[in-house]
Design brief:
By secondary structure, the chain is α+β, with helices and mostly antiparallel strands. The chain contains 16 helices and eight strands.
């Protein structure tokens, strides 16, 4: 019995030793792999100009290569197995690793980041792929902070000595993605951005998130970062690197800077608005009827600009600016569906798109009310609706009122909704004479010039036959 026990102990000791040797060999092979991969990339660059002649027939059709100008690549390496010994329950450790990876998958999905691959205990993912967006650097850093919290929490729940640590490297730049996979699309990323991100991870310190200067410039408004110095990168020289300490105090719900607050979400929403705006303006450009000479993309952009200008003048909050700009973006989008009652159809489109961009139900309701407030005649019920109405009819007090109003006439004329230009000028005179700006900002900016436009229209109106001269 004693000999069997001693034999078992010797076998365990031998297995532990073999495990350590395998780990060392794996590290050696991993380093060699990185070196070979780097050399391979350089060879591909040299052979690039001959690529067309080297392609096999049909090879180009089997794989689709995409180019992304701004993607954020994250490498996360989980350290733990190197600390295993015969006193630790290996099955429990494996279960913990599975739990970590499961939670990481949820975080990746939450921030709409693409998982590229896992290599052993190293995870590679990227933001801005396959859906291009301007927010991907912020989303990837948020995901990294959550991953650190996950590892810390699982380690805290463990009865074992501290065995889990995580290192992260993040870099933003252009990448080339090769699309593959039959049932599910998978991406293989290549380029200097990938190489720099993995270099930052491999040179980092456990528990830290290291980012490049490229990423820092894109996230510094949201996160507290500490300058760490320069790091030599092959073929790139020395680059500046930063340590992410956490979310800025004024943007976080706690002192640790791990969880974003409402102000963070609002500022992130203002940044994300650029992506939403690009999508909607592109759709308007393609789908608006050709006879919309006034209610076109230019008018939408003008109103977006004006709601922000008047909003700041009226002292509204960041969140209210976001709601105003979003309403302005959609206020004429309903023309895609119908000219008449287009305000209502604009709310339909807003309800379709806004949930995908994390707008709350309450925010969506306010935005839809702002859109409907632009329906003539304007009858705003609150400050935001007053700002919206003033921005929509801002042109009434601008020096280019006459040419702008003529585009509206042309638009109505092609739909047989108006008679002669003289009839139109009479209608305009009646409308602008009865119009009022609702905000003090618009009054100070446009009211004086609006009165001048009334005088100009009066001079354009021709008296009808038998109508007495004024």
């Amino acid at each position: 019995m004693s000999e069997s026990y001693e034999e078992l102990v010797r076998r365990i000791a031998k297995l532990v030793k073999q495990n350590k040797e395998l780990k060392e060999e794996n590290n050696r092979l991993h380093s060699l792999y990185e070196k070979l991969q780097d050399e391979n990339e350089q060879l591909k660059k040299l052979l690039g100009k001959y690529q067309a002649t080297l392609e096999l027939p049909g090879e180009k059709d089997e794989q689709k290569t995409l180019r992304f100008q701004m993607a954020t690549v994250l490498f996360a390496n989980i350290h733990g197995f190197s600390r295993l010994n015969d006193k630790i329950d290996s099955q429990k450790v494996i279960d913990q690793l599975d739990s970590i990876m499961f939670h990481f998958e949820n975080v990746i999905h939450k921030y709409k980041i693409e998982k590229i691959k896992t290599i052993g205990d190293t995870l590679m993912c990227a933001g801005g792929i396959p859906q291009k967006n301007i927010t991907n650097p912020v989303e990837v850093v948020l995901a990294a902070l959550e991953m650190v919290m996950i590892v810390d929490e699982i380690q805290h729940q463990s009865d074992n000595d501290k065995i889990w640590e995580i290192k992260m490297g993040i870099h933003t730049g252009p990448v080339t993605a090769t699309l593959g996979g039959n049932k599910k699309s998978t991406y293989e990323l290549k380029g200097d951005t990938v190489n720099i991100a993995t270099r930052l991870e491999s040179s980092g310190v456990p528990g830290n998130i290291i980012i490049s200067a490229n990423t820092y410039e894109l996230v510094k408004e949201f996160f507290t970062c500490e300058y760490m110095g320069k790091m030599p990168i092959k073929y790139h020289g020395d680059i500046d690197i930063y340590l992410v300490k956490g979310i800025k105090p004024e943007l976080s719900v706690n002192e640790q800077g791990k969880v974003p607050n409402d102000l963070f979400r609002t500022r992130f929403g203002l940044l994300q608005f650029n992506d939403l705006q690009e999508i909607i303006l592109d759709r308007l450009e393609k789908e608006l009827p050709p006879y919309l000479y006034y209610h076109n993309v230019k008018h939408t952009v003008d109103v977006i600009t004006e709601v922000e200008l008047i909003g700041w003048g009226e002292g509204v909050s960041d969140e209210e600016i976001l709601l105003l700009k979003t309403a302005a973006l959609f206020h004429d989008s309903g023309h895609i569906i119908s000219y008449d009652n287009h305000e209502y159809f604009g709310t339909v489109l807003a309800r379709e798109y806004l949930p995908k961009f994390n707008y709350t139900n309450e925010q969506i309701e306010i935005i839809c009310e702002l859109i409907m407030a632009t329906k003539l005649p304007p009858k705003p019920k609150n400050l935001l609706e007053k700002i919206m109405c003033d921005a929509d009819l801002d042109y009434l007090g601008r020096s280019d009122f006459i040419p702008v109003s003529n585009t509206l006439y042309r638009e109505l004329k092609e739909q047989n909704k108006i008679g002669s230009l003289n009839d139109w000028n009479k209608l305009q005179l009646k409308f602008i004479s009865g119009h009022q700006y609702f905000t003090q900002t618009a009054l100070s900016l446009r009211e004086v010039n609006k009165q001048k436009q009334i005088e100009r229209i009066m001079q354009l109106i021709e008296p009808e036959p038998n109508e007495p001269q004024p």
